[in-house]
Write a structure and sequence with these properties.
The complex is a heterodimer of chains A (334) and B (633).
Chain A lengths: L7 H4 L37 H16 L4 E5 L3 H6 L11 E3 L5 H14 L6 E7 H6 L2 H9 L5 E6 L40 H7 L4 E6 L3 H12 L5 E6 L3 H4 L6 H11 L5 E4 L2 E5 L8 H5 L12 H21 L3 H5 L1
Parallel strand pairs in A: 1-2, 1-3, 3-4, 4-6, 5-6
Antiparallel strand pairs in A: 5-7, 7-8
Helix pairs in contact in A: 2-8, 4-6
Chain B lengths: L1 E8 L4 H14 L3 E7 L8 E9 L14 E4 L19 E5 L10 H4 L7 E4 L1 H8 L6 H12 L4 H11 L4 H24 L25 E6 H11 L4 E4 L6 H12 L7 E4 L3 H13 L4 E5 L1 H6 L1 H10 L4 E6 L13 H5 L6 E4 L3 H18 L3 E6 L7 E6 L2 H7 L26 H30 L7 E4 L6 E5 L3 H14 L4 E6 L1 E3 L3 H8 L4 E6 L10 H8 L6 E6 L9 H12 L6 E3 L4 H13 L6 H9 L8
Parallel strand pairs in B: 1-4, 4-5, 5-6, 8-9, 8-10, 10-11, 11-13, 12-13, 16-17, 16-19, 19-20, 20-21
Antiparallel strand pairs in B: 1-3, 2-3, 7-14, 12-18, 15-17
Classes of the chains: A alpha/beta (334), B alpha/beta (633).
Bound molecules: thiamine diphosphate, iron/sulfur cluster and magnesium ion.
Iron/sulfur cluster binds next to helix 3 and helix 9 of chain A.
Chain lengths: 334, 633
Amino acid sequence: MAVQPIKFYQTGSFAVGNRLLDPDQRSVQSDADRANSISSGHRACQGCGEALGARYALDAAMRATNGQLIAVNATGCLEVFSTPFPETSWRIPWIHSLFGNAPAVATGVAAAMRAKGRPDVRVVGQGGDGGTVDIGFACLSGMFERNDDVLYICYDNEAYMNTGVQRSGATPPAARTNTTPAVGPEPGNVFGQGKNAPLIAMAHEIPYVATATVAGLRDLEYKVRRAMEFRGARYLHVLVPCPLGWGSASCDTIKIARLAEQTGLFPVFEAEHGEVVSSTPIRKRVPVQEYLKLQARYAHLFGTPYGAEVITRLQARADRNIARFGLLETEAAS
Amino acid sequence: MFEVRFHGRGGQGTVTAAELLSAAAFIEGMHAQAFPSFGSERTGAPVMSFCRIDDAPIRSREPVIRPDVLVIQDPTLLHQVNVFEGAEADCRLLINSGRPAADLNIGEFTGGLRPGSVLTVPATELAMQHLGRPVPSAALLGGFAALTGLVRLESVVAAIEARFASRPDVAAGNAGAARAAFDYVTDELAGLGITPPVPSAHHDGGRVIRASQDGARVVQIEGSAGVAEAVARCRPEVICAYPISPQTHIVEALSRQVKSGQLTPCEFVNVESEFAAMSVAIGASAAGARSYTATASQGLLYMTEPLYNASGLGLPIVMTVANRAIGAPINIWNDHSDAMSQRDCGWIQLYAETNQEAMDLHIQAYRVAEEVSLPVMVCMDGFILTHAHERLELPGASQVDAFLPPFEPRQILDPSDPVSIGAMVGPEAFTEVRFLAHARQLQALELIPQVAAEFAAHFGRDSGGLVRGYRTEDAETIVVALGSVLGTIKDTIDELRDGGMKIGVLGITSFRPFPLDAVRAALSGCQRVVVLEKALAVGIGGIVSENVRMALSGVDLHGYTVIAGLGGRAITRDSLRRLFQVAAKDELEPLTFLDLDTVLVGRELARVAANRQSGPAAENMLRDLGVVASRIG
Ligand SMILES: Cc1ncc(C[n+]2csc(CCOP(=O)(O)OP(=O)(O)O)c2C)c(N)n1
Ligand code: SF4
Ligand SMILES: [Mg+2]
């Protein structure tokens, strides 16, 4: 019988819920007693990165808080697909108020818990990139600046998906959305715009800021747990591919998230009190084309001289991230 | 009138199917209306779409309740959703399935139909063969053409080719699937001994879209696309918008026009909130640029503060409001709560009855706004209008240019002639500033009918104005309403008139300024007024009715307020007919909620009475309704 050789990393920290590990080292998801904060049957698209990321993040938060968790959700895909009432996917206390006020509502919940002498109950605020970096940004910055005891998680799928894929302040350059269509002399979203929410969060010098992707689900769980070890404002920015909005295959969500890391386009790191304390090294560096070509939102970049030039510029962005966050061991060492 | 209902799942092209059918009918010179039962459904969820076809313009906008043909795109729906609702004896069914109808286990539902009226066609298989993707809609339309003879196969193919003009392979694949399904159904009918129907003679055979070189043409497009075309022809210089359903298609189309260089010079700003959208429009307008934005619902509320600011400053911004309910509970469907909540923010508010009127009102709105230096909201019903495909006349660019001169601001931020705008005004002059704002709205009251008359002379169409009556002359009962429901009301009134009832309807186009005199003149001769409104002033009742009462002060007649269509509840001809019959006998409650589910309300009230912690009310009621809460009518 042919034997499948086991590669080392399949048993290491990069594999998900690996049954070969000691029970105490296993992922939260592999635990039969996990909280199932978001249970199955919700209405997300097949291969939705946001559904996956939220499930891991909230179950990890539930474990870290011994089940004493309240979630506040901004309007967006996660909110809509999880509550097709009378069905709800939420097995935790959860409230949706508005699109632009989730951080402030979370602050309110945290204040109430403080007033009631319930420091054990922790609060997670969450929303999409639009709800976070655009319309909710003033409330988010206020929550950070006051250092309110909230973990805010942004599920970044790089556009307004719930309303049918429009540009947000987190949409990367060149990406096609329905308000940055692939027409005209510079098709897709333009260069020189957009905001880097994790770095802005760090500028508030809040206790903890981290980024993650759904390709590193163990890492995501770790970062939620780590965040819950701090009091005060914490920010977690998770890259969650969206098959619908990115024009990618449902089965490629994790692959694409991994390529975002491995190209350097999405740096994965942790920062405490405004300083980067660790970054996840790129194991096998990949040119950005490998990432772009799997997504119809970049289809206009292939086969034209203009597109080739844009790809070079995107590669330069990736290279800059690699240097800035020391993502290649050799470069970090030099 | 021929009515078709499509049932499918998200991702199967159910909405596209209805649109393509309407386009095929348009090509044949008929009038057609296609619209989705829009929801927040994602891939795989049950969805519906509707198409009406007629030789005359179509006014009713209720969902298709008694279909002539039901097209089922996914046979797994047959036992999950009540797709047969409203299928009467002469309804015909076209089902996407590789199995014969007899094997589908639906006898209990189709027993009442005439023999031979249920047909299957392996549409997904045909799509896989010809297109390589499991999208059955084109094949089903080919089958539909064979089954009904209502549209010819060539028209279906032409509609497909126009739709996928930029992707010839997709067009060819879909066309191939449609042809194959046409042949398949033709054979099936022959097998059943039914002579396939031949398209009737009046079809003028592939009518081509009339076009002139400056863009004037007649097209079959979505209301949002039509509005975007109209706005673009007004040559806005700054467009800023923040996405919110059901406004998105308008601003997406405009972003495409700007990005592709078709609309130039124009800046499209993707802002980070509605608060910012209105703020950008304020800055742009004060700097002398013709400015445009669009929003709905939560977004309109989110811009409340800058809304008052824009009107207070007297900036002639034009904004589309794609009317939608306000949460909580969150609801994306149509009613007028959003615009009504801002009725007193100082903006002019115009309500469109049809998509053609929505387009025309934008062109008129810039004229009015810039003339009196006040901002204008053009309100159009979300989804019901914004997402409906119908025949629209797009004006030519030079025609619009001749009607709408370039923007000449009354006030402008200009380094060569510095002014200050937005100073603090204290008690010494605040009342006077407000008085003048009111005076300018009264000036608009004069101007709006003039502009509408000029528009009619220029474009050959009646649109806009203050109010519009229909069969009100000798009416004993007059219904008052705003927006797209007027069409359904008119059809109902025609029916009731046939039965001898003296009834008419008054549509209010200009809600702000409110045309007190025109309303009084139109209503004072009747015996009773039924105000049908799509918003509720919680704690008192009607909003429009209060305004109508003001117009009628001193006039002695019965007044009724009917709250209808909240959060997308369909307003059907059946319900309206019953309502007006009760009203005509003066047996209506002063405040009536049309089609209120009193059992549902009763259960929640009982829960509230029984338990202190009775839980969230909206969620409780949805639980009572069960999973498939969505009804067709
Ligand atoms: C004030 C306001 N403006 C606009 C909207 C419409 N809206 C609802 S969700 C959404 C987009 C959500 O995008 P994002 O936050 O990135 O979440 P995603 O759906 O992509 O997960 C928008 C524009 C709203 N609900 N409220
Ligand atoms: S649109 Fe994108 S984010 Fe929304 S449910 Fe689908 S995959 Fe998830
Ligand atoms: Mg998003």
